[in-house]
Design brief:
GO molecular function, one term: ATP binding
Strand content: 15-25%
Function: Essential for recycling GMP and indirectly, cGMP.
CATH superfamily: P-loop containing nucleotide triphosphate hydrolases
Helix content: 40-55%
Distance between the termini: 21 Å
CATH topology: Rossmann fold
CATH architecture: 3-Layer(aba) Sandwich
InterPro entries: GK/Ca_channel_bsu, Guanylate_kin-like_dom, Guanylate_kinase, Guanylate_kinase_CS, P-loop_NTPase
Mean pLDDT: 91
Number of strands: 9
EC number: 2.7.4.8
Low-confidence stretches: none
Organism: Bifidobacterium cuniculi
CATH class: Alpha Beta
């Protein structure tokens, strides 16, 4: 695969704003294709099947996993399965469409394990919070998890933050607009876009 068809993997700790930055990026650059992950977790208010995630039960998910239909899979926060459908990623890369995966640390590590066997070239981007205190404030401000779920996510976040040096590029999410701009710069460079 040529350098101009590299998969961009965006990860970072829980509640760092990966989805928000990705949405801002797509608002400015709608030609970027973002993979829609599959999950066994229940939809949150406003989430749409096939747009936000492919929602499925555990039996369906595990059958697809056994069939090799995912680029990566992970169990996140010990609660739900997540996975990246492989075929759409390969199709968009083959067409030269800037292709982005927004996934958690486990998923990024799994992509690293499988990329070579699948012939994928990947650029790994770590989205970091300005500080751990800011990450805590963002997580609590979302209001989508119970205090117990928040505690589990923050425990996970500490581990995820320690993995920053495993990535090719770090972008600090001080503001969504700047982080989206910085992410676009990485994509534009990899795809030869001016």
């Amino acid at each position: 695969m040529s350098q101009r068809n590299r998969l961009i993997v965006l990860t970072g700790p829980t509640a760092v704003g990966k989805g928000t930055v990705e949405a801002a990026l797509r608002g400015e650059h709608p030609g970027v294709w973002v993979s829609v992950s599959a999950t066994t977790r229940a939809p949150r208010p406003g989430e749409v099947d096939g747009v936000t995630y492919w929602f499925m039960d555990e039996e369906e998910f595990l059958a697809k996993e056994r069939a090799g239909e995912f680029l990566e899979t992970a169990v996140v926060h010990g609660m739900a399965h997540y996975g990246t459908p492989l075929r759409p990623v390969e199709e968009h890369l083959a067409m030269g469409v800037p292709t982005l995966l927004e996934i958690d640390l486990q998923g990024a590590r799994r992509v690293k394990e499988r990329a070579a066997e699948l012939g994928l070239e990947v650029v790994y981007v770590f989205l970091a919070p300005p500080s751990f205190d800011e990450l805590v404030a963002r997580l609590k401000g979302r209001g989508t998890e119970t205090p117990e779920q928040q505690a589990k996510r923050l425990e996970t976040a500490r581990v995820e933050l320690a993995a920053e040096d495993e990535f090719d590029v770090t972008i600090v999410n001080n503001t969504v607009e700047q982080a989206a701009h910085d992410l676009w710069q990485v994509i534009a460079q990899e795809y030869g876009i001016r």
